[in-house]
């Protein structure tokens, strides 16, 4: 990498006709220097370590490489009172990726919903995915990247000894597949 000289020193070192190029040289130098100074941090609150590790394993099992060095994930008191989680960037390697989780809202009822929330935010931050509002043939969301729904593959919330069709855990495989590959085929249960 070329050294970043102060502009006045650089001006004395180059012939007059090259000085016209100085603004370009200096700005490219500044860009290089700025990039070199970025040191990503990995710091995940213990409360969410299992879900983040699980995300890395799901990515790895599909042969998808994700950056495991640039992520800060923690509770964030500054989130609005309707926001469960928020990612600050879309897989931008030059930015410190941050996921904030609202500590003041009841955002999940079980492990599946907690995972869905974290996976959704990591979908933004580590996969660069945006929100998807498309639906499957049965009207259910096509993607875990749907806005504000963590119960896509949740078990029944209240069961009183009856077998009822509210258990959606079998849909998890599809939603995780789709998270990592948006062209995943429509699952058979979506035609029922
Ligand atoms: Zn989102």
Overall description:
The protein is α/β, with parallel strands linked by helices. The chain has two domains: about 30 residues, no CATH class; about 150 residues, no CATH class. The chain is about 30% helix and about 10% strand. It has five helices and four strands. Strands 1-2-4-3 form a four-stranded mixed sheet, with helices on one face. Strand 1, helix 3 and strand 2 form a beta-alpha-beta unit. The longest helix has 15 residues. The protein starts with 6 loop residues before the first helix and ends in a 12-residue tail after the last helix. The relative contact order is 0.11. The N terminus is likely disordered. The chain binds zinc ion.
Task: Briefly characterize the structure.
It is built from five helices and four strands. It has helices spanning 7-13, 22-36, 49-61, 111-125, 172-180; strands at residues 42-44, 71-75, 85-87, 98-101. The protein has a four-stranded mixed β-sheet, covered by helices on one side.
Helix content: 25-40%
Q: Estimate the mean pLDDT confidence.
A: 86
| Number of separate structural domains | 2
Coarse structural class: alpha/beta
Please render the helix and strand layout as text.
Blueprint: H1 7-13, H2 22-36, E1 42-44, H3 49-61, E2 71-75, E3 85-87, E4 98-101, H4 111-125, H5 172-180
Parallel strand pairs: 1-2, 2-4
Antiparallel strand pairs: 3-4
The structure holds zinc ion.
């Amino acid at each position: 990498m070329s050294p970043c000289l102060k502009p006045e020193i650089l001006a004395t070192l180059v012939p007059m006709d090259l000085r016209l190029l100085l603004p370009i040289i200096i700005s490219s130098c500044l860009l290089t220097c700025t990039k070199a100074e970025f040191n990503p941090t990995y710091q995940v609150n213990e409360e969410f370590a299992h879900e983040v590790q699980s995300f890395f394993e799901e990515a790895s099992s599909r042969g998808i490489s994700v950056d495991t060095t640039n992520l800060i994930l923690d509770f964030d008191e500054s989130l609005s009172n309707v926001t469960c989680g928020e990612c600050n960037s879309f897989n931008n390697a030059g930015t410190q990726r941050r996921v904030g989780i609202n500590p003041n809202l009841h955002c999940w009822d079980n492990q599946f919903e907690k995972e869905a929330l974290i996976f959704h935010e990591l979908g933004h931050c580590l996969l660069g995915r945006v929100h998807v509002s498309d639906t499957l043939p049965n009207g259910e969301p096509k993607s875990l990247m749907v806005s504000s729904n963590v119960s896509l593959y949740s078990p029944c919330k209240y069961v009183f000894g009856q077998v009822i069709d509210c258990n959606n855990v079998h849909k998890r495989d599809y939603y995780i597949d789709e998270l990592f590959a948006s062209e995943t085929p429509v699952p058979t249960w979506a035609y029922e």
